[in-house]
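Forgive a beginner's question, but might I ask you for the amino acids of a protein and the tokens describing how it folds?
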Amino acid sequence: MRKSRARNYRSHFSVHILPFHGDVRLSDYGVTHIRDLRLHLIEEKKISLKSAKNVIGASLKALFRDARAFGKIDKNPFLDLPREWWPRVVTAEPDPFTEAERDKITEYFFKKYWQSWPQGFVFVYALFWGGQRPSELTARRWRDIDVSTGMLSITTSRTEGEEGAPKTANSRRSIQLLRPVVEYLAQIKPLRAQPDDYIFTDQRGEPINQWKFSEQFQGALTALKIRHRDFYHTRHTFISVMLTHGENPKRIAEYVGNSPEVIYRNYGKWLGDTSGFGNAALLAAKPKPLPKPFAGSTAGFEQFPLVGLVRGAGFEPARRFRH
């Protein structure tokens, strides 16, 4: 178990669970207690639904799973909960930067850090032009990249200073980096780089801490007067831009370590170009599908001059507008 995960477990129990239900015996704990804890966390302590799920659905649930496995209790109360007992949450849509904003941000980091800390600039550039999760990129070592071919191997992630498996099975992958990214990496590679040395280090030579780096990223947005978004939106930007410019969704999914279903569900509105819905098809059509003038018969209708006439909403002939 990662130290960070063990730390989260201890925090969940010491801060949330034990102060509220610490005097309840495991064998007496039931569905009512679980529901009361959920209400306490969300309504009284005002923590987010996601955090409440982590406390109850991860830490507390694991406790009762293990207690049942070791014979400490006869029944796991979580098995009596209905399948859908958490309130539904509307997940926020990806909010990528525009291509112009992306270019301003990378230019800002280049001008500010290239001479004194080039790894900081290349880190941002690689995220915008590679779509990796920040935790994946901070874990990369020089053994993971072949600058002669541009192939990058992603097998681990780094969170809160600890390395572990990447987020999903699809996250383990080897990708061909875009040429500008490879060129920048070649420029920052030390002459005597060791295979286990981290690629992206901070100004003290330590692996970049993505949470601390996020503060520098937000500072750049403030300086550029760009609407603030989470650092993770570098990934959203890469995916949306690739879709907009016609890259295959399945190929994008493989490249960023997602499933095609996730790409279609979360980023589908960026599929195609930016000329507006249907316009690309209209421009490509030969001949152009232009509407033809209406040529219906007017037999049996009195003919009037066009001045002072108004056409109806359907295909009926023009009629006189009476004052």
Q: What stands out?
A: The CA atoms of residues 171 and 257 lie 4 Å apart.
